[in-house]
Design goal:
Layout: H1 8-15, H2 20-27, H3 31-37, E1 45-48, E2 67-71, H4 77-80, H5 89-96, H6 101-112, E3 118-122, H7 129-138, E4 144-148, H8 155-164, E5 170-174, H9 181-190, E6 195-197, H10 210-225
Parallel strand pairs: 1-2, 2-3, 3-4, 4-5, 5-6
Length: 226
C-alpha cells in the first residue's frame, strides 16, 4: 500500500510528527501530499525558534491556528534587549535587519488567525505594546499570553489586557523590565480571574541613562552609610 492511498485523517496524523521543513519537503513529492500540507487542520500549533524562521515558506497561517510560540534563546537576544540609546553602531545595524520581523508576523496573525488561544513570546526585544494591543483586539478568544524578556513591553500592554483581554486567563510578563508594580496592581484589580505572573519584572531596574544611573548610585551609597 502506497502512502498516498491513506485517507486524509491518517496522512494528517503522519504529518503531525514532522517538523515544518520536513513537511514542506514531503509536500514537494506529489500533489496528494501537497494537499495534506495545505490542509489548515495541520497548522493548529506553530513553534518558531528564531525570527529567521518566520520568513520561511514552510508553514500555513489560517483560522485553524490555536497555539503560537516564538522563543528566541540565542545570545543575540541580549543585543535586541539593550535599550536603543545604549546600542553602538554595530548593534543598531544588527537589530535593524530584523527589527520588524516578529511584529509584522504578529500583525499577519491578527488578520488571519482570529481563533488564536495562546501566544508565547520569549526574547522578542522589538515587539511593541501596540502590536500586543492589536493582537488582543483581533484575537478575542486569546486565553494565554506569555511574554518573557521583551524589553519594549510596558504598562501599556497591561492596560490593553484590562480593556481587551476578556477571555484571558493566564498572563506572564517575566523579565519584562519596563512594566511597573502599579501596572501589575491595576491588572490584579480589574482582572481578578487572570493568573498573573511577573518574575524579575517590576522589581528590575531598567537600563538607565548615565545621569539617572549616577543618581541611583548616590542614593545607594547614602543608604549604605545610614
Amino acid at each position: 500500500m502506497h502512502i498516498t492511498q491513506l485517507n486524509q485523517e491518517c496522512l494528517l496524523h503522519l504529518f503531525s510528527f514532522l517538523d515544518k521543513d520536513s513537511r514542506k519537503n514531503l509536500a514537494k513529492t506529489c500533489h496528494r501530499l501537497l494537499e495534506v500540507f495545505q490542509d489548515p487542520l495541520l497548522w493548529s500549533l506553530l513553534k518558531f525558534h528564531s525570527p529567521v524562521e518566520l520568513k520561511k515558506d514552510n508553514f500555513l497561517l489560517g483560522p485553524a491556528l490555536k497555539h503560537l510560540s516564538i522563543c528566541w534563546y540565542s545570545e543575540r537576544v541580549k543585543v535586541c534587549n539593550i535599550e536603543d540609546w545604549m546600542k553602538n553602531s554595530f548593534q543598531k545595524d544588527f537589530c535593524k535587519r530584523h527589527e520588524n520581523t516578529v511584529s509584522d508576523f504578529l500583525l499577519d496573525v491578527c488578520n488571519r488567525c482570529p481563533n488564536l488561544l495562546s501566544l508565547t513570546l520569549s526574547g522578542c526585544g522589538h515587539v511593541t505594546d501596540d502590536c500586543i494591543l492589536q493582537l488582543l483586539k483581533n484575537c478575542p478568544n486569546l486565553r494565554s499570553l506569555k511574554l518573557e524578556n521583551c524589553v519594549r513591553i510596558s504598562d501599556h500592554t497591561l492596560e490593553a489586557v484590562t480593556l481587551h483581554g476578556a477571555a484571558l486567563r493566564t498572563l506572564h510578563v517575566d523579565f519584562c523590565r519596563n512594566v511597573t508594580q502599579a501596572g501589575l496592581e491595576r491588572v490584579r484589580a480589574k482582572c481578578p480571574s487572570v493568573m498573573l505572573r511577573a518574575d524579575r519584572s517590576a522589581n528590575m531596574i531598567p537600563d538607565s541613562k548615565p545621569e539617572k544611573k549616577l543618581m541611583l548610585e548616590k542614593a545607594s551609597r547614602k543608604l549604605v552609610q545610614l
